[in-house]
């Protein structure tokens, strides 16, 4: 995984020129604090670091297992005033070395002689002769010429906001930012321990007005003509492992050359170009090609279509599926990636109806107005109607298969059926399924504020972290509620214990007003009590509308006999379930 400065940089960094000169990025100001760059900052200084001791800044609030950077894993780092983050120790050096050649492992958005002192500090005899800041000095919270940082679960951001250049020049200024973001789970090291977290790096350059300090040979922030390489050294940007021998490094173009400031502000390694924005992925400790880890389409079918870009040693990229082919299932997906929605297998006596296995109508019969065709109940008006993929036939016309459906809490509508979006979806290594999407396992990447990592690797609301809700209920805001709340099940189904299940065919022709189940809330027969089970896709009401209940309720057209409805429905359901159990 070695990186050579000249040839590899050309292969792996396809530069995209900005359309106009002077184009630049904006700094991310979403991290809180008075300027939006965080609530902690470094005291005004020259050649200082935070912290100014040997302990280092604790990175575990953002990356509990540390960062896996080249051959090392680091849980502590030093923010250096001179435009870089170093590991192992602080770096006061103001004139940058060429990469490879950093004194310590470092990530450097702009290694140069930054000077954040104001006029008062420049003349203060309390400032150390060798640079840094006096013991006990604190951040001034100034609106400019200051270095900020913020640590939050999975993210570290360091911002050099309108910083000056040595010696005590408050103009011209540079504004740039480094954002580190956790990108998955930690890997195992050779000794069996955790080897740190994979992460992404983003450099943002918002204002690029100087390249070299006075002590590096600069004048007015730039190298005099003809002095580069002899008496003047501009900034260096990139990454260096600082190993022995130092073979792992990455140098951004124009580093230590005249014009680096313009290059970084007006160019980008992204496609399409975002002037002033440079992104990199660190996987297994190695800096990968710029687009590594970004979403892509694999040109495969089904669940294999969603992918992530991966890189080869030669600098080429390939789109690898997040999820590989899996056995066929009845969940409304193309699990085996053959281009067709799977239709099972289902248990004996059941058939696959869209996205769930249902009892064969040879066993249960069908509702009035429906006919048993190929073991499934089909509306009689739809027997000869052919609909496109993603549609269903109702009353002889094709409509969206999920039209009018509101699934129970925690489920989604897929091909006209309410299903668990993660059922049968096995994500790749270090990934877990969250609401049907493969996301990094939170056991190695902290959750956001207000969230807690559950045992299944998914971030949940902290108020629900210890909830133990009974079957058919889900936790919201710390309380268990019926998963059927607000549910409008598909045609011919009803919500019971948090699931949309086939409604038993019921026709009561004597006694109290009966429960007559329609397919879209339409009255059948000459009146009585009507239960709309599919959410009124053609004008009916949601099942349970107007009834305050923790479960499913019924809507009545009148008051006569209303007290019989829940009892009659419960008895009918119990009878149907009992018949199914006996048949099983």
Description of the structure:
7% of the residues lie in helices and 31% in strands. It is built from 5 helices and 40 strands. The longest helix is centred in the last third of the chain and has 20 residues. The strands form 14 sheets. Strands 2, 10, 11, 12, 13, 14, 18 and 19 form an 8-stranded antiparallel beta sheet that branches. Strands 3, 4, 7, 8, 9, 15 and 16 form a 7-stranded antiparallel beta sheet that branches. With 584 residues, the chain is mainly beta. The protein has 3 domains: 284 residues, no CATH class; 43 residues, no CATH class; 91 residues, no CATH class.
Uncertain runs are 1-22, 189-193, 507-584
The mean pLDDT is 77
Number of domains: 3
Give the number of DSSP strands.
40
Q: Biggest β-sheet: count, sense, barrel?
A: 8 strands, antiparallel
- How much strand content do the residues show? 25-35%
Cα distance spanning the termini: 59 Å
* Tally of helical runs: 5
Secondary structure category:
mainly beta
**What is the subunit organization of this protein?**
single chain
User: What's the alpha carbon Rg, rounded to whole Å?
Assistant: 32 Å
Shape: elongated
Helicity level, as a percent range?
A: under 10%
Keywords:
mainly beta, disordered C terminus, 8-stranded antiparallel beta sheet
Task: Give me the secondary-structure topology.
Elements: H1 5-12, E1 16-17, E2 40-41, E3 49-50, E4 57-58, E5 67-69, E6 72-74, E7 76-80, E8 84-86, E9 106-111, E10 114-115, H2 119-122, E11 146-152, E12 155-165, E13 169-188, E14 194-208, E15 236-240, E16 249-251, H3 260-266, E17 267-268, E18 277-283, E19 286-288, E20 295-297, E21 306-311, E22 317-321, E23 350-353, E24 356-359, H4 361-364, E25 370-373, E26 376-379, E27 391-394, E28 397-400, E29 412-414, E30 417-419, E31 431-434, E32 437-440, E33 451-453, E34 459-461, E35 473-476, E36 479-482, E37 493-496, E38 499-502, E39 515-517, E40 529-531, H5 564-583
Parallel strand pairs: 39-40
Antiparallel strand pairs: 1-17, 2-11, 3-7, 4-7, 5-6, 7-8, 8-9, 9-15, 10-12, 11-12, 12-13, 13-14, 14-18, 15-16, 18-19, 20-21, 21-22, 23-24, 25-26, 27-28, 29-30, 31-32, 33-34, 35-36, 37-38
